[in-house]
Amino acid sequence: MENSERRYDIDWLRVIAIFLLLFYHMALIFQPWGKMIGFIQSEETSDSIWIPMAMINVWRIPLLFFVSGMGVCFALRRRDWKELLIDRGKRILLPLLFGSFLIVPVHSIFVILYYGGEPEYGASMGHLWFLGNICIYITQVIGFAFLNQNYDYKFFRFFKTQLKRPWFIYIFALPYVLEVFVASPQYFSMYVGNAHGFLIGMVSFILGFFFITFGKEFWNAVERVKIFSLVIAVTFYLVRILWFNFEAPVYFTSFESINWIFALFGFAYKYLNKPGKALAYLSEAVYPVYIVHMIFLFASAYYILPLGLPIELNIISIVLLTFAGSFVSFEILRRIKIIRPLFGMKWK
């Protein structure tokens, strides 16, 4: 069955999205509003570093939810609903709880110390908030476990038939645009701790689930419209930064976001659906690296920023130390059987 095969392009997109999140978090240190969202903030900020970040900011989190929904749909082909909940509990809920109580409080202390406060313990989901959302979204699609996993029903057959005309894919942009009218966010890319972040994640997760049920018809459609979607996304991005000074109306940005995602799926399906040693390594590394990276990010900023180095050296140093610390930690953690599940890795 085509839908039960391993999809390496989806694995690559997960890796790419999470590593881009790491760069995004590093860029926040050099923004004039970094302190407002709980980050250590450099006295010298950079406008230029935000130009590429503004591009990825509108699709990085939605893409993760799309890929997560796809992963759940694939998992239901191999597990019943009980096995799915147990598996996702181990892979998502356990690292979320562990990270909230023992990882996030550590990197939060660096922020408190940097601004001269008294260190105190405070449990929080922090940067792991999207794992909590995924746990909720999984319960919303668990009923699909009771359906025939070929999804040979009128609803699914209708979309499979319509997707043979690739432009029909844009019907799925409609819930994206409608969501911002329902949630009315001030900024499309404000995902944390608000109704918009929860709803856009839910829409992305459910659409990702449905896209897998549509099978090859969906992938053929995004592959055929990938260049058109990319042109639309780049055009909207340029208009957003040049005409609207980065923050366009949210309905405008939502359409840009879904075009980036269609383009990413199309190009990944065309060029990245292949296994390799790099993918195997990064697929295992990306989750634990993401869980621990904020400790090394804030520790690096805490020690480097007071040195008064040029901003270019600050950026390079923090990036290198964050990645080095995160990957060294991964190499250690992956070898300790008992704690692997706490960082989202499978038992060995």
Keywords:
single chain, mainly alpha, 13 helices, 348 residues
Please give a structural write-up:
The protein is globular. With 348 residues, it is mostly helical. The chain is 66% helix and 0% strand.
**From the alpha-carbon coordinates, what is the Rg to the nearest angstrom?**
20 Å
Helix content: 55-70%
- The sequence of SSEs as H and E is HHHHHHHHHHHHH
β-sheet strand percentage: under 5%
**Number of continuous helical runs:** 13
Which stretches are poorly predicted, pLDDT < 50 over at least 5 residues? none
The largest sheet is: none
Summing up helix and strand content along with how strands pair, one would put the structural category as: mainly alpha
- Large-scale geometry: globular
